[in-house]
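Subject: sequence -> C-alpha cells, single chain

Hey, anyone have a minute? Need the predicted structure for the following. Not urgent.
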Amino acid sequence: MTSNVSGRKNVICLSDTAHKIINILYKDRDSNLETEKLRIVLTAADIIKEDIQKMAYDHTTYPATNYMKSGGENLIPNTLATFTPRLRRNCVAINHAIISAVRPKSFLSPLQIGLALTLHRFYGSKHLINIVFSMGACASYYEASVYINALINAGSPNVSEEAFIQHIFDNADVNVRTLDGLNTVHEMGEYGVLCQLLALKPM
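Reply:
Had a minute. Here:
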C-alpha cells in the first residue's frame, strides 16, 4: 500500500499494517472523546496563530482617526474572522485583542489605540489606561502618549476652505485669597478645538 501526499515523500507499507494503524487511531479517538475535542481545539489554535504571524502589519505609522472608527476588520486573518463569530457576533475587538496577544510588538490596533485615547481624553488617568491595557482591551498609556506627541508634531491640520470654525472667548473674575487680601483673579479663555476638529477633512 502506497500513501501519496503532495510535498512529502511517499510512504509504502503492507495493507495489513495500514489497516491496523487506522483501526488503532479511530479506536483511541472514539474511546476518548474529550481528548479528541482538545486536539481539534489545539489544532485550530495553531492554525489561527500561524495565520496571524503570516499577516503583514504596518507598525511604523499610527492609524488616522477615521480609520479607528472603521474598525480595522481588514487586519483580521480569515481563519480568525471565521472562528470567533461562531462564539459571538460583532467580536472585532476580541479579534484585535487576540492578534495583539500573539504579536504585541508588531501590531497596532486602531480600536485599542482609539479606546486608550478616549480614556485619556475623558479621565486623564494613566492608572486606569494601564489597568485596561493589562486586560488586553486597549493600548498602553505609553502608546497613547506617543500617539498624542505624534499628532502635536504632525503640523497644522488639513482644514477645508469651506469649513466653519468658531472660536468662543469668555472671561471670569474670581475672588480669592491673595497676599494683600484685596486683589481678584481675572481670566480669559478661548475654546475652539472641538469645532475645528469637526470641520476637518478625512485623511
